[in-house]
Here is the input.
Amino acid sequence: MIKSIKENWEEYKSKCVPKDAGESQVFETRMAFEAGCMIMFESAVSIVDNLNEDQGCAEFDKIAAEIQLICKERVLLAAKQILDKSKKET
Here is the structure.
C-alpha cells in the first residue's frame, strides 16, 4: 500500500527535522516538503497525459536518475559537515 503524503511527512519529519526545531522551522520544512510533492505529482500527471508509454518511461527514468544524484549530493554534503565539525572539535 502506498503511504499518504501525511504519512510520508511524518516519517520525514521524524528522521530529518531536529527534535528541538522551532515551530517556524517545522512549518517551513513542511511547506517545502509539500511543494516537492505537488511538483512531482504535476510532473507525473503531465507525463501520463502527454507522452506515450516509452516516452513516459524515459521521463520517469530521468526523474529517478535526478533523485539519485540529489541523494548522493546530500550524503556527500552530510559527510563533509561531519568531517568539518570533527576538525573543529580537535
About this structure: Residues 52-90 form one domain. The chain has two domains: 1-50, 52-90.
